[in-house]
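User: I'm putting together notes for a lab meeting next week and I want to include a structural view of one of the chains we've been expressing. I don't have a solved structure, so I'd like a prediction I can at least talk through. The sequence is below, exactly as it appears in our construct file.
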Amino acid sequence: MTSTHRAAALVIVILLVAAAALVAQDWRLLQRYLTAPGDPADPANALWFEPKVAIGSGPGGELPVAAEDQRTLSETALDAAWAYAQATGTDALIVAHEGVIQLERYAPGVEQSTVFQSQSLHKGLTAAALGAAIASGAIPSADTTAATYLTEWQEDPQKSAITLADLAYMQGGIQRPPYGNHPWAPGAALFFTGKLAERTLATPSVAAPGEVYVWSTASPQALAIAIQRATGQNWADFIAASLWQPMGGGEAYVQLDRPGGTAQAFCCLVSNARNWLRFGELLRHDGMVGERRVLPEGWTERMTTAGKTNPNYAMQLWVNEPYTGEFVVNGQPRFTRERGDRLAARDAFFIEGHFAQRVLVVPSAGLVVVRFGDDIEDWDDASLVNPLIQAGHAARMPTGLPRVPPPPMTFGETQHPPVPDYSQASNWAAHPDHYDVTDLDPPGLTRPEQPAADGFYIHPTTFRGQQWNAAVEDAAANEDVDAVTMSQATVLAECCRIFAPRYRQAASAASTPGMDRTSGMQAFGLAYEDVRSAFRDFVAQSGDRPIVLLGHSQGAFHLHRLLAEEIVDTPVADRLVAAYAVGIAAPVGRFADSWTGLRPCDDATTTGCVAAWSTFGPNADPLAYQQLNAQRFPDYARPDGDIDLLCMNPLTGSKADATAADNRGAVPLPALGGYLKAPVTNLLGASCTGGMLRTTAVAPEPFTALALPGENYHFYDVVLFYSNLRGDAARRVAAWLEN
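Assistant: Thanks for the context. Below is the predicted structure for the 739-residue chain, given as structure tokens.
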């Protein structure tokens, strides 16, 4: 043997010894890599991994199923969803509406009890488990540093600053482990290793916490290890007791890196589609199962609020808004994935398993959708769920307003909600400094990137509770506030940056005939204090820019006071382009006293003016309307018993009549959580008659569901004339700037 051959042989021996040492160090990694099935999404391969431990057994708790003739979602929507599912290699699809299964279909050879390899759906459980650990008291808050429990990180200058929330948001700066075609590639190794905790916690940092979004399997795995150490329980026992069993989960398994070792929490919980439906329902109900609270109150909102490094990624799940046509899959290195159409509900979110495994939740539509099947890289969530969302929203649309009983105590006996702080973004339904519902235009309409003016919008009454005033934090009232703000405040989108405060609005009972009038007026007074405070903040933020004001119903009532108390005889009056006080009567006589210096918007380009109208159908009685308001405002009544009321035709920007051909677009009221639809052109004309705005014809569907007696279209005062109002505000701002 030559010296060259001996050297080569020595090199081979050294490599073999090194390889043997590497295998011996983590032999399970190589064994699993060599025996892993080719398609983990195939349910036939779901149980191949060993060892695993059960966290549930049997079919699980009862799930109600709608009989075919009692489904609350339309057959058309369900058929459309199943057609897309079949075309994309779906093995299991379940659609539940309001907690009742509407559709449950399986591919041939797959049944209700078939278990699937969940892939990254398990990540969503880690975020829920963080909430459960906080609820148990084991963890003080999501903002606790991970190194409190991960002692291996305490001496690392970057890792020691990572919070548990950073890990949940994938913004801890932990490297995305690189993948490769060999078992020792760090990404592949996490799936197969027998030393999961050691490899996870040794994953290097690539950025400081909170600076960049890095989709890293090591992040949720580190979060799970921290939760285990904080609670003193292994992963399987903890999620079984705190999540799986309370939600009624059945057969399910967690994979371990070795017997008695670390559970894979970044991936691969094995269970059936029905159990994932239960998890979706848990999130839809903000962590409640029946009367039992499983997760802290508000935890679902925290989970579904995007982190600061990726606007569409929240705590181990994806959120629908804002829509940009793509998802940022990873921030460093950056790569993106094209999205299909936006989902038809603002509050839609989903947990994603490898490409196309889904738990989709739409609280505003009462929907949970679960899908297992083939990995589809060009999967389109909108094709699956948008017909279902639209059907869910339609099922929830009101057909009238029930009478609300009066609050049980007088205003003086009531403990009032806390005063909102308008330096906090959460107290604004719309603000230029954050993304909100006023950033969403109807299809086909556009806005300038840098509008020249600022708009201040005061929303109408949305609170129907049994207190005199709503708390600004009231989620149910705010859901309505967001919907009406989107449909009304966006008429200012072509002229203005939009500011819209949340305020302690007076309840609907405060203005209902027959209620305690004294308490009602006190409730309105409390609401006005907030509006005034927000307006002063708005004026300061706006600087010297021109301003446009819009208030509807209760909002118009407060706007009347703002004009008198905060604008007339102040420098702000010089900046006023127009004030639209819509939905309540405005006596013309006010221009002679409390509104001195202002004028009616009698011409389409008048500025420094006030516009008002209340909308009725063609058969409404203007004389009765005048007499009613003469009684309400006796100081402004004429000697003949009538009253002169301000009325601007929103279709013309003046008192001139308009035909349906002049209507550039009415916009239907959006569903809660939904979006504005495309404007309907040439819908109705209108004319000012006796102080009321009367339409030229009875409003058609869908503009009648909330029509009040006497052809009163109060709830449609703005949306019936939506496109014309956008143009009117923009035209007046242009006139103000020119003059």
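A couple of points you could mention at the meeting. The longest strand covers residues 90-97. The chain is about 30% helix and 15% strand.

User: Perfect, that's what I needed.
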